[in-house]
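Whiteboard transcription, Tuesday session. T.W. wrote the C-alpha cells on the left side:
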C-alpha cells in the first residue's frame, strides 16, 4: 500500500461552493480507477473545526505503484495542476490498514495526523506501535477505515482515518469528506503491510 496526499490552501474569501461543485462534477471519475484502493476528496473551511485556512485536497491509498504513477503522470493530476498549480505531493510507505465498524457507511469526515519519527528511535518499535494504534483507532464507533504510513525521506509517520459522522474522535487535522472513491478498497491488505 502507498499513501499519498496533496492539498491546496485557498484564499480566505474563496467561495468553497466552487470546490463542492468541482467534486460533485468530477469526483466519480476515479470510482473505478485501476490500482486505487481509496481516494478521499477533502475540504477544510476557515473557521470551522479549528481550521485556520480554506483548503482543498485529497488523500489516496494505492494498491499498486502502477496505479499511482498512471494517475500522477496522466490527465487526472494534470487537471489539478491546470486549475490550482502543481502542489507538493506527500508520499508514505504504508505500514498498516484496518477497516472499521462503519466500513459500509458514507464518509463524512477524515482526520490526518503527521508525527516526526525522532532520530535514534527504534524503528521496529515505532512501526509496531503505529500498527497497534491503527487497529485501536479502527475499532472506534463511526470509523470506515484507518491507515498509517512512514515517509523514510523525512521520517514522518502519518495516520489517516475516515469517519461516518462529523465529530471524529481522533487527534489531527479534521477534514470534510466530499466524496470517497474506493474501487479497490476491498483489495487493500488489512493489518501490517510487511
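and on the right, the sequence the group agreed on:
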Amino acid at each position: 500500500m502507498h499513501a499519498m496526499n496533496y492539498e491546496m490552501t485557498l484564499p480566505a474569501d474563496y467561495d468553497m461552493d466552487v470546490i463542492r461543485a468541482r467534486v460533485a462534477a468530477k469526483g466519480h471519475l476515479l470510482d473505478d480507477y485501476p490500482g486505487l484502493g481509496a481516494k478521499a476528496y477533502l475540504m477544510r473551511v476557515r473557521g470551522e473545526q479549528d481550521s485556520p485556512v480554506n483548503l482543498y485536497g485529497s488523500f489516496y491509498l494505492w494498491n499498486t505503484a502502477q496505479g499511482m504513477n498512471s494517475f500522477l503522470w496522466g490527465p487526472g493530476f494534470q487537471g489539478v495542476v491546470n486549475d490550482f498549480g502543481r502542489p507538493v505531493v506527500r508520499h508514505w510507505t504504508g505500514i498498516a490498514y484496518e477497516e472499521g465498524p462503519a466500513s459500509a457507511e458514507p464518509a463524512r469526515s477524515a482526520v490526518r495526523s503527521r508525527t516526526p519519527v525522532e532520530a535514534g528511535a527504534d524503528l521496529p518499535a515505532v512501526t509496531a506501535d503505529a500498527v497497534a494504534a491503527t487497529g485501536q483507532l479502527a475499532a472506534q464507533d463511526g470509523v470506515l477505515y484507518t491507515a498509517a504510513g512512514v515517509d523514510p525521506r523525512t521520517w514522518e509517520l502519518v495516520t489517516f482515518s475516515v469517519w461516518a459522522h462529523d465529530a471524529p474522535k481522533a487527534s489531527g487535522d479534521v477534514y470534510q469528506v466530499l466524496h470517497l472513491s474506493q474501487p479497490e478498497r476491498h483489495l487493500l491488505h488489512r493489518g501490517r503491510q510487511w
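Someone added at the bottom: The helical segments are 17-26, 65-72, 75-84, 123-138.
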